[in-house]
Structure formats: structure tokens, C-alpha cells
Amino acid sequence: MSDSTLLIDAILALANAPDWSARKRVVEQHHELLLSDGAESLLEEGVAKNAGRPRVRERFELCRSILADCRATGVDAAFVLAIGPTPGLLEALQDLVGADSATDAYDSTVEQQGLLLTDEADWVLAALAHESADDKGLVERIAHRRALLSQCREAGIEPAFAGMLREERTTEALEALVPALDSPKEAAAILMRYEDVLLTDDAARSVKEMAAQKDITPDVARAFSAMHSLLTIARADGFSTASATYLLPPFEQFINRCFFALFTGAERELSRRVGITELLESEFDKFGTDFPEKLHQWSQTELKSESQESLH
After folding, report:
1. 20 to 30 Å CA-CA from 130: which of 158, 178, 307, 308?
2. CA 58 to CA 172: how far, in whole Å?
3. Domain with 10 in it
């Protein structure tokens, strides 16, 4: 029997299949023939020749549509919606795709992992993306969720979501820190609450990116500068020193940090990571040969302030 005869027989079997499950079995059995360019050409010819026979033409059009979907998304994805997915799967996927936060997406995945971490879930997402090709935003979100579920299947839910959850917590921490910057006490409280994400390279990078935004106002620029100082000092000197010095001018900030760094024993803050030597090595060169003059000016300011306070 020739290949053309086998192809015609396969197309007729698909066209005459009574339901979607039967159609899928035909495609799976004859996929090499039916997913070929020859099948596409033959179906186009069948549609054209049966313009006056609506029922026959509709069968050929259905076959052409089915095979086009199979070529685009794979056989399983092409049939999963028509046959009907496992009860509850579509709703679980809609919750996951519609989740607006990493936490919500994580919770949905944990709660529905029996449904979501399956090949069938991937087929449904592929089918939904194909059906929504005109909605670029939705297609991108579905692609992200497919990749996320793939990572969950391969590495586990916790590792797959770790980066997203950390990024979300970092954003939450920075948003909480902004209104607290005017109050050292409140700033210290935020630092302690979000220590796991604020004292990291990711947080420092996020602050740098926000500060680099175009057309920010002077007030916003000052807020970013204060935030940068707070996080930088906290990583080296600890929370108490950071909250006590981050609003000071650079030289006064440096001198006060040095004084705090000289504390020892019970007075030394547990969160401090460097001592006076490391602090001097990292900061001293920033002031260069101007250091004696700046120290003199600072001393005068401090003595003047002490004298004024003693008069009251």
C-alpha cells in the first residue's frame, strides 16, 4: 500500500472518528503521516473541493484545525481541553496564573501540587497559551508559570520559589523602610524585622537601581542616599550604629562609627561584623589629606554644641 493511500486512510479515520478521545487515538497512531506537510496539503484540497458539501467540508476543516494545533503545541496539549482535563485542574491553573504575588502563587502550588505538578497541567497551559495568542501579556504570564511548574517538578517547590519569594520580601522590606527613614528608632526596627533580605547584595542593588531612575526629586534622592547609608553601615557596624549614624554628614558619620567600633565587651553590638581596624581601612582613604581639617571642623562643631547645651 502506497504512502499516499495510507495518508488518505489516516485522514478519513480522523474525519470519521466519533469523539475527541477517538480522534486523539487516531492522531497518536498515525502521527507521522498526519503531522506531515502532505497531510496539510491534502486537507486544504479537501476543503476546497467540498465547498458545496458543508458537512464534508466542516469535517476536513476540523481535521485541519486539529492537526495545526498538534503541530503547534503537541498532541496531548491539542486535545486536553476538548477531551476535558482532570476535575479541578483548570480551576487550580486559573488560580496560579491569576496570582498577583509570589506568595499567592506559592500557596496555590503547595495546596494544589497534586494537580499542578503533572504533565497534564503543562498540556493545559500550552493549550491556553495557544488559544490566547492575541493576548501577549497573558501568554507571557502562562509561559512564566509553565517554567515555574517545570522547576517545581525538577527541583521541588521550595527551591523553585526561593528567588521569587526573596525578591518579593526584599521589595516589601524596602517599601516599609522608606517611611521609617526619618526615625532612627523605626528604621532600626525595620532592619531587625527584615534582616534576612535588607543586609544583602540584592537589597543594595535594588536601592542603587531605584536611585538611578530618571527625573527623581531631590527629596527622593535624599531618601535613597539615607537608605544606602543605613544598609551599608548596618552590614558592617550593626543595627544600633547604623540607626544612630546614617543621617549624619559623611565625616561626622565616619567619626561616630569609629567611636562605636571602639566599644568592647558587653557594650559591643552583637550584629557588628567589623572592628575599628577594618573600618579605618575601608573608610579612611575617602577623606584623603583633608582628614585633619575635617576633624578640626568637626571638633569645633561638637565643642560648640556641648558649650551651648551646658548653658541651658
Report:
1. 158
2. 55
3. 3-74
